[in-house]
């Protein structure tokens, strides 16, 4: 069952430099999604956010309520629902909805070295809407921390003008993160079948990592709710 580092056994689990895209924008099609059992996941706040996270198990996913200042800078505050995974993986999820306590509220799939706030990781994530943010006018963004307690960086879409290249479209906002050795690829989709590459980034993470949905409010006084559905592995 879903667990926290210290946990409550109840059904609703309460836990009181810049780069641009360099990879080709190729696509792929797949229909082989194998749902991951929700009871396989554990649950923890990372970085001691002021608002404690909560998770409700749903049919094929989670409703995640999270606090946290951000996943950015040299240390993170967020809520993490994760598996311990060794080796390559290919995981996808549909984000049905995401509330907006801040312009930079984030929810997405994370591959993390450990559960300390300043560790190395990959974070392919979405925002609540397609409003302009820095060099991004869409809803998706690929972020990473290269070094322990180092500054996080982001990979933005190739253009921040005109029609967004990677727009969010709730309730059909699909996100996918794939690992092959030390290459991590983020994919975008509107249907969970036809995928478009956002980018690939190489980061030497350990074979064993922590993997799953990660959500941060970016507003220390208000929580965010992210509804993850259809959490699955691609086979």
- Can you tell me the residue ranges where pLDDT is under 50 for at least 5 consecutive residues? 3-26
What is the CATH class designation? Mainly Beta
Number of DSSP E strands: 20
- Summed over residues and divided by their number, the pLDDT gives a mean of 89
Q: What is the terminal separation in angstroms?
A: 24 Å
- At CATH level 2, the architecture is Sandwich
Large-scale geometry: globular
Radius of gyration in whole Å, from Cα?
16 Å
Helix content: under 10%
In N-to-C order, the SSE pattern is EEEEEEEEEEEEEEEEEEEE
Count of helical segments?
A: 0
Strand content: over 45%
**CATH level 3 topology:** Jelly Rolls
The total tally of domains equals: 1
What does this protein look like?
The protein is mostly beta strands and 235 residues long. It has a single domain (28-228), classed as Jelly Rolls, CATH 2.60.120.200. The protein is built from no helices and 20 strands. Strands 1, 3, 6, 9, 10, 12, 13, 14, 15 and 19 form a ten-stranded mixed beta sheet that branches. Strands 2, 4, 5, 7, 8, 11, 16, 17, 18 and 20 form a ten-stranded antiparallel beta sheet that branches. It is globular, with a radius of gyration of 16 Å. Residues 3-26 have low confidence and may be disordered.
Short description:
With 235 residues, this protein is mainly β. It is 0% helix and 51% strand. It has a single domain (28-228), classed as Jelly Rolls.
């Amino acid at each position: 069952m879903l667990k926290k580092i210290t946990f409550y056994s109840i059904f609703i689990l309460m836990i009181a430099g810049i780069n641009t895209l360099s990879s080709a924008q190729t696509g792929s099609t797949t229909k082989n999604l194998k749902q991951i059992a929700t009871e396989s996941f554990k649950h923890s706040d990372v970085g001691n956010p002021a608002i404690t996270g909560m998770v409700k198990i749903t049919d094929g996913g989670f409703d995640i309520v999270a606090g946290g200042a951000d996943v950015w800078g040299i240390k993170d505050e967020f809520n993490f629902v994760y598996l311990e995974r060794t080796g390559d993986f290919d995981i996808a999820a549909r984000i049905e909805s995401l509330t907006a306590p801040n312009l930079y509220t984030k929810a997405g799939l994370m591959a993390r070295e450990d559960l300390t706030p300043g560790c190395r990781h990959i974070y392919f994530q979405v925002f609540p809407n397609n409003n302009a943010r820095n060099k991004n006018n869409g809803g998706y963004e690929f972020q990473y921390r290269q070094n322990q307690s180092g500054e996080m960086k982001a990979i933005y879409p190739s253009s921040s003008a005109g029609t967004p290249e990677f727009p969010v479209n709730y309730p059909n906002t699909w996100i996918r993160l794939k690992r092959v050795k030390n290459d991590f690829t983020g994919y975008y989709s509107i249907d969970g079948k036809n995928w478009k590459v956002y980018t690939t980034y190489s980061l030497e993470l350990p074979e064993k990592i922590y993997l799953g949905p990660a959500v941060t409010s970016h507003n220390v006084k208000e929580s965010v709710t992210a509804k993850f559905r259809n959490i699955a592995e691609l086979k």
